[in-house]
Amino acid sequence: MRFEISKVLDAIEARLTTDPALARAVVDMSEIIRYADLDGGRPASSVRLGLVLDALGLRFAEENVPVYVVVPRGLLSDTDLTSNERMVIRRWADDGKVEVVPQLDGRVFEAADLLGVPVLTRSRADRERERYPWVDEPGRLLAAVAGEGGTTVLVPRVGRNEPPRPPERSAMGDRLLARVWSCPEPNCASYGSGGDPDSFFADMRTFTSPVSQPPPALRGGVPTCPRHGARLKDAGQRAAVEVLSVRIDGVIRRRFVVSTDEPVVVGRAPEGSGVMLGQWLTDDARKWISRGHVKFTLRPDGTLTVQDVSTNGSGVRPGGSADDDTRLTLRRGETRTLGPEDVVELYANVNVGRASMWATGGVAQPQSVMGEAPTMALRKFER
């Protein structure tokens, strides 16, 4: 059973992010793990984060929806969790996959304000209302509750029958996220410089790319490292980014970021940090799509281009048109500038476009991170 629980935690890990461009919601892990009514199990269980992640996927009708998790430091030694759970959360913290803070002190709502995303909470946020008036807007606070058949769903705390307005990043968030920040603690996973390269553990450390740094905390109006409490140094302009979505057979499978610092290759199984599609492709699509098929580049002027690097070629559908007569063929080595609603077609129904193009993820039942959870795992989890 421990092995199965570990696989659930691995699946959860794949949905964790502190990247401002990818996070779709913010959550306090110390609150979520105590939602015992969702499963009738132990007083605290980190696996409940998986239930909430599944609910977030249902709300967006999208696969692989990432979430920004804030962890108060005390949770790392909370004996209501098993030793294995505490170890996994520490690893997530050390790798920068979750944000650890000494005390919450409103950090969950601050992060949501700076990122422009909802908060997953059952709280009414009474203490935060004066500072963040948006907590009274429909859809900005989403509570995880047990729905029909025991499925966890997210219910708006305000305006359940009102269509939510898309949240917007605050002006302060725009300013902070336009800069790269440096923490005086060299081993800081979020804002560190990498520490001593000759250290025995240098190759084991994980650091956040400058383009993916989380928003700093503000202490007295000063940008501060949320984990170490140290004043951050402005290290210069942050690279611009564009968020793209992979859409296969009408379903958004994942989002990814292209920055002016680094192009991104998408294909069946590209090398390095490219976007791999192979696990979602049909046999015919796998035969057609090259390991590295197309390369996306964001230029300093904000122009997004696509270059075909494949064997069989690709295409561009201007404005996302389904009309084959307007489809533009791209042969190996050819590059095209993409308009705001242009869609790149690697194979029939295998598309890449700007994430803002598609209002829904196109799937009624996203794949669950709880797929590996054994029956009654949450109720009988041996320490």
- SSE string, helices as H and strands as E: HEHHEHEHEEEHEEEEEEEEHEEEEEEE
Q: How big is the Rg?
A: 21 Å
Number of helices: 7
CATH topology of the largest domain: Rossmann fold
Cα shape: globular
What this model shows, in words?
By secondary structure, this protein is of the alpha+beta class. It folds into three domains: 2-165 and 366-372, Rossmann fold (3-Layer(aba) Sandwich), CATH 3.40.50; 171-237, no CATH class; 251-357, Tumour Suppressor Smad4 (Sandwich), CATH 2.60.200.20. It has seven helices and 21 strands. It has helices at 2-13, 29-32, 48-60, 83-94, 107-115, 171-176, 283-288, and strands at 26-28, 68-72, 99-101, 119-120, 141-146, 152-156, 179-182, 217-219, 222-224, 233-237, 241-248, 251-259, 264-267, 275-276, 294-298, 304-308, 314-317, 328-330, 335-337, 343-347, 350-354. The strands form five sheets. Strands 3-2-1-4-5-6 form a six-stranded mixed beta sheet, with helices on both faces. Strand 5 and strand 6 (152-156) form a beta hairpin.
